[in-house]
Each structure stands twice: as C-alpha cells, then as structure tokens.
Give the backbone structure.
Amino acid sequence: MSAMKYFLLCCFTFVLFSSAVLAADFFVAPAGNDAQPGTLDKPFATPARALAAAREVKAEPVTIHLRGGVYELTEPVRLTSEDARTDKAPMVIRAYKDERPVLSAGVRLTGWQVGEDGRWRLTLDAVKTGGWTFGQLFVNNQRRLRPRLPEAGYFNVASNMPPTEANAKRGFDRFQFKDDNVKPNWSNLQDVELIGFHQWSTSRMRIASVDAEQKVVNFTGPTRGLASWTDFKTGHRYFVVNVKESLNKPGQWYLDRPTGVLTYIPMPGETTDKTEVIAPRIDQVLVLAGDVKQHQWIQHIRFEGLTLAHTNWVCEADGESFPQAAINAREAIAAIGTRDVQFVGCAVVHTGGYAMGFGAGCRNVTVERCEMVDIGGGGVKIGNAGGAHSWGELQANAGDPESGVEHITVRDSTIAHAGRIHPAGVGVWIGHASHNTIEHNDIFDLYYSGLSVGWTWGYQTPSNAHHNDVGWNDVYQIGQGVLSDMGGIYTLGVSPGTRIHHNNFHDIESFSYGGWGLYTDEGSSEIKMDHNLVYNTKDGSFHQHYGRDNHITNNILVNSKLWQIRRSRVEEHRSFIIDHNIVYWNLPDTPLLGSGKGNWKDGHYDMDNNLYWYDGKAFDFAGFTQKEWNDMGKDQHSIIADPLFVDAANGDFHLRDDSPAKKIGFEPWDYTKAGRTTPRSLTKDMPAVPATYE
C-alpha cells in the first residue's frame, strides 16, 4: 500500500471513529437509577439527571432517550441557558423508539378504602397538613369533575352590588342571589368556588361569607377592575362547584382539605385494583427559562414524541379574575428566552391551565404534529408564558428589541377540548408578537375564540403584532353558547402584513352577542382576510367593530343566523374593503348587512365585485334599495346570482363548472385541505373528554 493510500485510509478511519464518539446518548427509564451511568442497560431515573450529564458534553450532539412509562415529577423539568446548545452540537430529548414516556405533574393515588355506601375514600396527610391541594382529578385517562350546582344550566344574579369599602378601588366582591342558591352552612365554605360569567370572560371567586337574610354572597377578593364588564350584573349567570353536600353522582369527587380525605364516587365497572387515579401536584411540567436580560438563550434543542400531563391549577385565596382570554393561567410547557427549539410529535393532555406558552425573548420555535387535548385553559400562547409573571417580564423588557417574541410556528397540530377550567381560553393566542405562522391545525371544542391575534386596543403605533400568518386551519365548535363577543378568529390593533387565509371557520355560537367567523375588533387595521370558508355562525360571517383598511376578499360566507356582514362603528377613515366574495344564505328573515342603516350610510368603506344570493329571495342593503346602494358607489359590479355550489345543503361548497362566481373574479380553492395533514397518534385512543367545564 502506498504511503498516500495509507494516509487516506487513516484519515477515513479517524473520521468514522470521530463521528461515532462525538455524539452522546443518555437513557432514562422510570425504573432506572440516577447513580447509574445512563446507558441503555443502566439508565438514569430522571430527566434532570440526564440534563446534568448532557451539560458535561457541550461540544457533542446529545440525544436523551426516555423509555416508556410514567415519570412522576415533584418539580418541573427545568432548562436554563446552561443547557444551550449549538447548531453543530444540538440536543434531542425524545421518546425511545416507539415507546411512550409520560412526564406527569401528578401522582397515582392508591390505598383506597371502599365504604358501605360504595364511595372510595383516601386520607392524604400532605393535604391535611396544608402542604398540598389540587383542583383536578384524572381517572383512567379521563378528567373527572367536582360536584356542581345547579347540576345543569346556571343560576342568575338577583342584583349586582357596589364593591365593599375594602375593594372600592379594586373591583367587585359581592352580589345578591335568589332563593337559597348560595348557602351559608355549606361545608368548608371558603373552598366553594363560584364561577361568574361576564361578557367574554369569567371570574372564579372563593366565598368569604354568606348573608342568608339579605341574600348576599361576599368573596375573598375582587374582580380585576371596576369596568362594567367586570361586574356581576343583574341577570348574569353563575354556578358553584366543590360543594360537599352536592356530591352525589358517579365520577364526581370531593377533597375535604381540613381532614385530608378525598372521596370519589366510582363510575360503573370501576374497581380500586384496576383503576388509575391521578391527582396533580405541580402546575407545570417543562420550563425553559433563558436569561432574557442577559441575552443568554436556550437554543438548539428538539423535543420529540413526549407526552406531558396532569398539571395542577388551584384557585388562589382571593379568587381568580382576568380581563380576557385567561392568559394568566400557567402552561404545562412554558418558555422564555428560548430560540431555535422544536416540539415535534408531542402531546399535552389533562392540564389545569394552557398547554404551551412562549414569552419574552422566544424566537424561531416550532410546534409541529403536536396534540393538545383536554386542556384547562387554551392551547398555545405566543407572547406570554408562565402566567402573569412572564407577562410582567415582557413588559419590563419592552425597550429591548431582543426581548420581543417572533417567528413562532404552530403547524399540523390538534388543539381540542379546551377551556375545561378557564372557559375563556383561546386555541392559539398571539399578543405583542410578530412574524408568527399558524397553519394546518385542527382547533375545536372551545368556549371562547379559536384564534386571537394582536392584543393592542385602538390605533397604537408602532405595532408589535404584525406580519402574522394564519392559514389552512380548520376551526369549529367554537363558543358553544357559553361566552359572548368572540369568533373563529379575533383580531386587535394595527397589524400590517397580517394575513388570515384558506381557513375553515364554522359552527360558532355565542351566548348573547357575537359568534362571528372573522372578527376584527378594536383598531384592527391593515389585515388581509382571504380564501376563508365561513359558515354556520351566529352573528355574522364577518364583523368589524372598528378598524382601518382591512381587506376582506375572495371568501365564501354562508348562513349566519342574524345577518351576514356586520359593521359596528362609523369612523372618518375607510373601515374595510369587501370584494370578490360569495355571500350565500337561506335562513328566513335574515338580512345581509347588520347593525342598522346608520352604520352604513357614511360610505367610509368599499364594497364591490361580490356575489350575493339569498336563496332566490329579495333583500336590501342595510335598508337601502339596490339602486340607492349602487348610487352610493357600493357594489356597482357585484351580482345577485346562485353561486351553484355542488351541494350546499350537505356542506359541499365547491363550485360547479358553470358557476357565475367567475364573473366577479372569484378564485376557487380546495377548502378540504384546511386542517391537519397528518393524523393524531398519541391521543387518538383517549377516552372522550367530558363535554362540559367546571
């Protein structure tokens, strides 16, 4: 062998050897031991130990393999800037092969005693001594609820009242009730929670005292603020939960904190030896906490195939009240100062708050093929994480451009059965964040808005929520008659470059006003909404409260119950452009344009090249005849014609080849491609989530 060939062979061998050794694999298993070396045959027991080992090999790519099984956490898995990697030496934390590791914030309860009444009881010493309490319980992979009064529906406030002197400048802390709906002799009265419904939010209050003679319930703390929408107004709805005396149905449970006794009424067929009961201990599972002030980021980490579950949420001593979207609720996964990180094929289930949150300093984060199911709050928060604590950090660092949140992607994921503890939770919430992409997701079964983008009220500039792209999502079963002033997508503030496109928004129902498909609220400006299919809404397929120069184009808007398009405020600038849309409805006595003639006579909006069809019936334009409308310069090139859907009665809104929609320049698209492109896997066999909230 020549010297040159020998040299090349040695180099090749060195490269192969280097590739083999310059990568580290650590293994973790529930039955492992942190004193072991973390190999496949001698794994660690905890993710925290594996992270510590990974910090010792910073120059090498690292993979942490989690074997299948449940990891009961006593504190969240926490990463800091010490765990930062590089693009050449990244870290992957993944499920081993096809196994299913579950990072659980809860603990399995055993040792039940079965009483003569059939109820299961368990004394928890940590609860009795005040070291632990919980507000959720999960049995055989399904959420169980505490007793609720009334058992169905709601009570109604008899009369609102001004706040007491102690809270005169803070918020509302009492109201009058009817009959004996609230009783002073309930056990552990201060553990009873009263959930009051405002317009678009709820307040969860703890009872301080009850005046049975005056029929006044007093709370341990006030709502947030004195605005009318924080008041417990006369006639507004409420219910109470956690009343020991009303524990009477299979599947219900009650935790008696003074005695530490947990009581559970089993479902038919459940036995203590074959039933898994999990109570949450901590309110977060995974925390990524980079140092935002020092610009020390957590970087180049990938999480794959993990399930995170069973987070706690407990109503604070003075109650819980937040103005909108329940964004103060903690997340199972919370990140600040995090960049170039991916969550792929992960599941977040059975939470007390939101599933995920990305706050100050987060950039270039991807959530892909993930499943967020049975969520106490909403799905993903972009612009806030860690509850109110991180929101304060984001505001404190507002002058630092590096603290901004941008380029977060949520793709090909499922967000479903949310708002089970906080009904105002949103599927994906974007606040004070830009250049984010939300695409090809299934978002369904929520009680407030499916998506929320903006979080700046009015015309504040410069905007810090712009160039957000929301496309190809299937958003449905939204609102469900629980809250008001909500929609499939809800926008706020000046948002140049933001586009809402190729989505399906359908089956959206508010409690009172609202229930819109496309909803541009206060100050929404310079937003393009195109190629969306909107149908079966309550208050309008499109509604603008107020805003400027929004472009609503090339959408299919079908069958809103009250009216099809609504405009709420007259302003001196152009509100919107509505063109090249198909507007179709066949519901009786339903106008095209809502909010009254006075909201349309100013003319500060453009409408043209639309196709309208009211099942062959005559209609007017907010009280104007078609000629009067055209003379105002509106819809001069629009047509009134059957769009010729393939089968509108059965939900097929594709256009026949001979559709007249081409006369208005309408561009068809295949709306069936909205939603996920890959099927659910980790949660596809979960038991049904109870179709209610607590």
Q: What stands out?
A: The chain has five helices and 62 strands. Residues 106-147+247-279 form one domain.
